[in-house]
Each structure stands twice: as structure tokens, then as C-alpha cells.
């Protein structure tokens, strides 16, 4: 197991490296599913520093994971506006060369611990419904599919999964 450090990213930080991680890690999914800036402009494969900074200022908490000083992934936590003790996990990202080494699971465990410490009782994720590999990965971590939904601005059906804490 490689040694990894997780750190908080604030809106005042230089976001260029984290944007690169988001672009690269989500870029593989964008290619697999045929997403472009034109048909899916809000995808993290196409996020820029200004958009990410705005999201941080609106209240998402972003954490980066690194090994030997190299940024290799990130994860974001957002408090639900609708559920008193509900949270969302977003931007789960691991650069391709560090996948399948436990980095994503470490990020998820970290986020769930943070959510529990904040009084969270449930956590939800949203993903591409046809991404069966990712669904299985979330299921293995205790998430259960709750619904699927089509959104006019997205070129795919969204699957929502939830885990009670």
C-alpha cells in the first residue's frame, strides 16, 4: 500500500493542479461515454479554475490526496440543502495510473468519516446510470441504488445511490 496524505483545498488556493486531476481522471470517462464540452459542459473533464473556485465558495468542501508530493486524486463533500442530516459526495477522482490501488476507497472512507463527524446520517452519490463498473464499486462500499432520473441538460440518465451511516 502506498503512503497517501489528504489535505483540504480552499477557494484561495492555487487550483491549477486540482483542475488538472479532475480533467484527467474524468477525461477517461468522458472518452468512454462520448462526452464533449458541447454535449456535457458541466462534466468535471471540462471544469476550469473559475468554475471550481465558484463551487468552493458556494460551500463544497474539497480534499486532495497525494503521494510523495504528487497530487493523485480528490473528493468533494456537500451538505444537502433538503435533508438535515444528508450529504453528497462528488468529484471522486483518481488519476488513471493510480487506480485499482485503494486510493478511491481511501478517499471514500475519509469522506464518510468527515460526514459522520459533521452529524451526517446519510450520504448520496450521483453517477452515469450505464456505468456498471462504477455502480458495482459504490455497491461494494455499501451504497444502494435509490432512483434514476433524466435531466434535460445531460446526455445520460443519472443513477442516485445512497448509504445510511
UniProtKB/TrEMBL annotation:
<dbReference type="InterPro" id="IPR000182">
    <property type="entry name" value="GNAT_dom"/>
</dbReference>
<dbReference type="InterPro" id="IPR050276">
    <property type="entry name" value="MshD_Acetyltransferase"/>
</dbReference>
<dbReference type="GO" id="GO:0016747">
    <property type="term" value="F:acyltransferase activity, transferring groups other than amino-acyl groups"/>
</dbReference>
<keyword id="KW-0808">Transferase</keyword>
<dbReference type="Pfam" id="PF13673">
    <property type="entry name" value="Acetyltransf_10"/>
</dbReference>
<dbReference type="InterPro" id="IPR016181">
    <property type="entry name" value="Acyl_CoA_acyltransferase"/>
</dbReference>
<feature type="domain" description="N-acetyltransferase">
    <location>
        <begin position="4"/>
        <end position="165"/>
    </location>
</feature>
<protein>
    <submittedName>
        <fullName>GCN5-related N-acetyltransferase</fullName>
    </submittedName>
</protein>
Amino acid at each position: 500500500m502506498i503512503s497517501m496524505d489528504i489535505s483540504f483545498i480552499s477557494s484561495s488556493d492555487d487550483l491549477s493542479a486540482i483542475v488538472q486531476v479532475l480533467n484527467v481522471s474524468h477525461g477517461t470517462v468522458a472518452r468512454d461515454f462520448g462526452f464533449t464540452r458541447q454535449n456535457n459542459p458541466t462534466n468535471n473533464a471540462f471544469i476550469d479554475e473559475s468554475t471550481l473556485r465558484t463551487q468552493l465558495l458556494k460551500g463544497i468542501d474539497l480534499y486532495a490526496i497525494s503521494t510523495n508530493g504528487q497530487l493523485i486524486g480528490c473528493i468533494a463533500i456537500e451538505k444537502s440543502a433538503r435533508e438535515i442530516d444528508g450529504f453528497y459526495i462528488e468529484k471522486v477522482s483518481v488519476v488513471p495510473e493510480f487506480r485499482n490501488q485503494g486510493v478511491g476507497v481511501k478517499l471514500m472512507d475519509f469522506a464518510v468519516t468527515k460526514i459522520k463527524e459533521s452529524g451526517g446520517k446519510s450520504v448520496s452519490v450521483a453517477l452515469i446510470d450505464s456505468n456498471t463498473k462504477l455502480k458495482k464499486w459504490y455497491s461494494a462500499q455499501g451504497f444502494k441504488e435509490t432512483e434514476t432520473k433524466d435531466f434535460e441538460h445531460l446526455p445520460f440518465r443519472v443513477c442516485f445511490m445512497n448509504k445510511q451511516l
